[in-house]
Design a protein that fits this description.
The protein has 114 residues and is of the alpha/beta class. The protein has four helices and seven strands. The protein has helices spanning 39-46, 49-52, 69-80, 95-104; strands spanning 17-22, 25-29, 32-34, 56-60, 64-67, 87-91, 111-112. Helix 4 (95-104) links the parallel strand 6 (87-91) and strand 7 (111-112). The chain is globular.
Length: 114
């Protein structure tokens, strides 16, 4: 009997995707989970020049199932270390994600919409 073949590894998909840019606005979509395994990629994406130059940043979290504290703190650092005064809005975050954002203090520097 031939040995069972292992399925091919799934292609890597970005955790954080810029879904819209222009007119000084950036919209970021967060699908799935943001946990320690995604932290490095998240931090890389948050220093993208398109994001740093935006006057308005919307974090679309409707598709986010889980946000751990390390990633929430990365979002807080990125929002407080930005040059200038950009408006930061969080949209669509579920109850547990909003609770995590609140626990790190992101609600003090961002508008969190339900």
């Amino acid at each position: 009997m031939a040995p069972e073949q292992q399925p091919a590894a799934r292609a890597h998909r970005p955790t954080l995707a810029v879904t819209e840019t222009g007119r000084g606005r950036a919209v970021l979509a967060f699908p799935g989970r943001l946990d320690a395994g995604a932290l490095g990629e998240l931090e890389e994406r948050l220093v993208d020049p398109r994001l740093l130059g935006a006057h308005e940043v919307v974090l679309e979290m409707g598709g986010l199932d889980h946000l751990d504290l390390a990633c929430a703190y990365a979002l807080l650092r990125a929002s407080t270390e930005r040059p200038g005064t950009a408006v930061l809005t969080v949209r669509g975050a579920g109850r547990s994600v909003r609770r995590t954002l609140h626990s790190v203090g992101l609600d003090a520097v961002a508008v969190i919409e339900e």
